[in-house]
Automatic annotation (TrEMBL):
Bias kind Polar residues: ranges: 279-288
Residue ranges crossing the lipid bilayer per the database entry: 131-150, 157-175, 209-227, 356-378, 398-417, 424-443, 463-479, 571-594, 839-859
Stored PANTHER family: PIEZO-TYPE MECHANOSENSITIVE ION CHANNEL HOMOLOG (PTHR47049)
Organism: Rhipicephalus appendiculatus (Brown ear tick)
Designated name of the protein: Uncharacterized protein
């Protein structure tokens, strides 16, 4: 991995290293020629040149070597072959160094060769750190001026960046003093506080207020040094005429000499300020020295006097035309640089096209997911849970939807411009995106979220902005270089190896991505195919590309003929697939059987018990909360297991739980609500008790906090018994008449209860013993009394149970309350964590009917049905078919639409004719194609 990264970095800096080495060699040659120093006059240069040539003839061997080196340099420069350039990698490879050192050297050269990009990134980081109006012009200049300059940012641009950055540092430093009023007050935590948005806020706890500005200055000066070392700091003439270049013809040395002499003589005779000096042999046309005399100072006035002599008495209209002409000349003087800028950008003389659309798409793709999972930082009142909290509520905020649609629309527009190769539209789109992004990120978004962009917790917008700036740099590079003439195939289809194969497989698995790309390509590409044929073509190419990758892998990793497959392959590939299928079959049962192992303990926080007689008002109601709901102590849990060690059913049940899953509920025996039944209803109840059996119903309910789980919030159940004993009914009737006595009702209160994840809370019968059943008797008594502040008398019911140290819970002993309280032991099922809640929500039957059956159909489609596609999947040589597909793409991009139809018809004929397809896909060394 380290060696591959080093090779990639060396390829990035290859051009820089080649140019730097050639410049160093040429400097040494120039220094060798001017051994006596540089000449100041033409005559001195001639004398020193003659001496040098005399010395050169005397050392003929050295001259031959110099000419040979010069010729070799010219051949390398003209050929530009990859072999010669790769020689630099061998020379600069530092193979005697360790791999890590070579990697660091490659990183250095990559940074040096792309130092302007490093400056752009530091400008972006500076804006992310300050997010103020003072630093905002820097990224705007970087994205709208520097990165769009052809062929490179001008000297004026870098001087402007240096000057403005120095001004920022000075302004920030001046506003750090305390004599400004706003520096004495406490900073207001508002994103649009004037000192903060202007960038002049005093940071008392942050002394690096100008750190990134100084870092930017350092890097820009370093970039300036690199440009000077390459001779690129001074701008040259950028307006080269194409016609002038095309009309240039080779001229002999004699013709050049005569032409120069004639031009010099003509220039000498016509120019009034050019005067020759020296003897007659140094007249123009000879090797003399020319001197320029200054023009008269009052040239304009003399010209106007001559003009007055020709046309006396200028009119006012003519003077206005003169002033208007001067005005237009002044305007054009300032407009001309802008016109030249766009002319060089849109219509350059030379253009080396490139294709970085895939990298721009990856940037937008990453930003799309940043916006999805970091929506809490892009909206109002959002929590750090992100958009998942909205999805759990089945709600989609409108601002969230608008941002996603806008991001998606930008991707579609960028794809359309790419397919149409519309540079002017891309430039307009670039300018629009730059302004919209900076207005939204630094003005609109802080106003919506009420959070400053520079806050440490505000990470998603920072990451989104940084990746978008990388997109803008790539987009500017695409505009400068121009779109490629031919856009052929998919980005992953450039090579035929396992990496591209699996990347293409992943691309095909992304829902709707392949379909969207195919439709957009058909809409914005000039073609003669209809949509059906276009989709056929894309499907054929996708299949042929995958076959090419497979055939390439078979060639690189051949298997000997007639040899058995190794055990490693069988147990590696086959064993993994076998284990996966078995896991899918038993996954639902395994998941729910391990629920109490991998689940989380969830104890109830409230327990409510009600007791009602017949269909009348409940006679008893009590709730247990907080301290009355406690976890079973571990010592009691050990005694409980020891008590049921002889019961296999009880041990099997207890194996699914531990002490943390058991809760002890203590209920007060006195009802918390008074019995407010009316006298007529009370008389009716007495009559019903004297007449027939009356139902007695006990209900219980448990409430839990079910955040991020699939459990039900409230779980409960009830039990009803019939009071058929006449003596019990008469005792109840007498108690309702006012006779103070106790009445014991049939067993109705459970001993052990189970609180499941979902469903009803049932009684646990696995813990029954011969001496103790699942239910207990209750003793009822109607109490009557008055309160101090009330004159009326109130009635309430008191409920008690029979209890001793060994009944009903011998394992509790000292932990159980007095007999005036009611006790319940509750076993709670573990709940699945949030990651498994979606699966367990379907239940066992739901998982088998959805997950297992769907996976089985996918596996069946992979293992069966291949006999119908043998003729297409087992082509031994797909090179000719692949080349035919590439030819179709080529003629389409060349707008040879008739030829596109013919080649596509040929491809369809191949797939319709098995015999012809067999001939086309034979290995090339067996039978040549007839």
């Amino acid at each position: 991995m380290l060696i591959s990264a080093t090779a990639k970095l060396n390829s990035v800096s290859r051009d820089y290293r080649y140019v730097a080495r050639k410049l160093a060699d040429e400097k040494r040659i120039v220094k060798a020629q001017f051994v006596h120093g540089l000449a100041t006059t033409l005559g001195e240069h001639t004398v020193k040149s003659r001496k040098f040539h005399f010395h050169e003839h005397s050392t003929e061997g050295h001259h031959a070597k110099t000419v040979s080196d010069k010729k070799g340099s010219e051949e390398m420069l003209l050929s530009g072959s990859l072999e010669m350039v790769d020689g630099l990698d061998k020379q600069d490879g530092h193979k005697h160094h360790p791999s890590l050192v070579r990697f660091m050297i490659a990183c250095y050269y990559a940074i040096v060769s792309r130092s302007e990009v490093v400056c752009y990134l530091v400008i972006v980081l500076n804006q992310m750190k300050s997010a103020s109006l003072l630093s905002l012009p820097l990224p705007l200049m970087a994205f709208l001026w520097g990165s769009l300059s052809v062929p490179r940012p001008t000297k004026t641009f870098w001087i402007t960046i240096i000057t403005y950055t120095e001004a920022i540092v000075v302004v920030k430093y001046l506003f750090q003093f305390d004599f400004f009023d706003w520096n004495d007050s406490v900073p207001v935590n508002r994103p649009f506080d004037p000192p903060r948005i202007l960038g002049i806020e005093k940071r008392k706890e942050d002394n690096d207020y100008a750190l990134y500005d100084l870092l930017l200055l350092l890097l820009v000066f370093f970039h300036r040094f690199m440009l000077k070392s390459l001779g690129l700091w001074k701008d040259t003439d950028r307006s080269v005429s194409v016609s002038a270049i095309q009309q240039q013809e080779p001229v002999s040395h004699e013709e050049q000499y005569v032409t120069a002499a004639v031009r010099a003589s003509e220039h000498t005779t016509t120019a009034p300020g050019l005067i020759t000096s020296g003897p007659p042999e140094q007249q123009p046309g000879t090797s003399g020295t020319l001197e320029l005399s200054a023009l008269p100072v009052d040239t304009a006035s003399s010209a106007s006097r001559c003009y007055d002599d020709v046309i006396p008495g200028q009119s006012g209209l003519e003077e206005s035309f003169v002033h208007l002409s001067k005005l237009f000349d002044g305007i054009s003087r300032y407009v001309e640089p802008f016109r030249n800028f766009f002319e060089n950008l849109l219509h350059p003389v030379y253009r080396v096209t490139t294709d970085v659309y895939a990298y721009m798409f990856f940037c937008d793709f990453i930003n799309f997911f940043i916006m999805v999972f970091g929506y809490w930082a892009f909206g109002t009142g959002g929590s750090e849970d992100g958009v998942a909290s909205y999805f759990q509520k089945n709600e989609v905020p409108v601002p969230f939807l608008i941002m996603l649609l806008a991001q998606f629309a930008l991707i579609v527009i960028d794809r359309a411009l790419y397919l149409r190769k519309y540079i002017l539209g891309k430039l307009i789109f670039q300018v629009f995106i730059v302004f919209v992004i900076h207005i939204w990120m630094f003005f609109v978004l802080p106003g919506i979220s009420q959070r400053s962009f520079v806050e440490e917790k505000n990470l998603p917008p920072k990451l989104w902005y940084f990746i978008k700036c990388i997109y803008l740099i790539l987009s500017a590079y695409q505009i400068r270089s121009g779109y490629p003439t031919r856009i052929l195939g998919n980005f992953f289809c450039k090579k035929y190896n396992y990496i591209n194969y699996f990347l293409f497989k992943g691309y095909m698995l992304i829902p709707f991505l392949y379909e969207l790309r195919s439709l957009m390509d058909w809409i914005w590409t000039d073609t003669s195919m209809n949509l059906t044929n276009w989709l056929k073509m894309e499907d054929i190419f996708a299949n042929v590309f995958q076959l090419k990758c497979q055939r390439r892998a078979e060639e690189e990793y051949p298997t000997p003929r007639g040899s058995r497959r190794s055990s490693l392959t069988k147990y590696g590939l086959g064993g993994v697939m076998l284990f996966a299928i078995i896991l899918v079959i038993w996954f639902p049962l395994l998941l729910f059987s391990l629920g109490n192992t991998v689940g989380q303990t969830l104890l109830p926080h409230d327990c409510t018990v009600e007791l009602s007689l017949g269909g009348y008002e409940p006679i008893f109601k009590i709730s247990a909360q907080q301290g009355n709901l406690r976890q079973l102590p571990y010592d009691s849990w050990v005694r409980l297991q020891a008590e049921y060690k002889s019961s296999a059913a009880a041990q099997a049940f207890l194996a699914n739980y531990d002490a943390a899953d058991v809760a002890v509920v203590t209920l007060n025996g006195n009802s918390t609500a008074i019995w407010t039944v009316s006298p007529p209803s009370q008389e009716a109840l007495i009559a019903e008790l004297n007449r027939s059996a009356v139902p007695l119903r006990l209900s219980w309910a448990f409430s839990r906090s079910v955040d991020n789980t699939n459990a039900e919030k409230v779980v409960g159940n009830e039990r009803t018994v019939q009071i058929s004993d006449k003596a019990v009914r008469q005792s109840l009737a007498e108690m309702l008449h006012g006779t103070p006595n106790n009445v014991t009702v049939p067993p109705i209160l459970p001993r052990f209860l189970l609180v499941p994840r979902k469903g009803k809370s049932d009684v646990i019968r696995a813990l029954d013993t011969p001496g103790m059943g699942p239910y207990r008797n209750l003793t009822l008594r109607l109490r009557t009394g008055a309160f101090n502040n009330l004159s009326a008398r109130s009635e309430w019911w008191e409920v008690q149970e029979h209890c001793t140290d060994s009944y009903p819970y011998p394992f509790l002993r000292d932990d159980q309350g007095s007999c005036t309280d009611l006790s319940l032991v509750v076993f709670n099922d573990k709940v699945f964590p949030q990651a498994l809640s979606q699966l367990t929500g379907y239940g066992i039957a739901g998982l088998y009917t959805t997950f297992v059956l769907v996976v089985s159909r996918l596996i069946r489609g992979f293992m069966a049905g291949s006999s119908f596609t043998i003729m297409f999947d087992d082509m031994p040589n797909v090179d000719r078919v692949l080349q035919l597909c590439l030819d179709i793409y080529l003629v389409r991009e060349s707008r040879e639409l008739s030829l596109e139809e013919d080649l596509f018809a040929k491809l369809i004929f191949l797939y319709r004719s098995p015999e012809t397809l067999i001939k086309w896909t034979r290995p090339a060394d067996q039978h040549p194609l007839a």
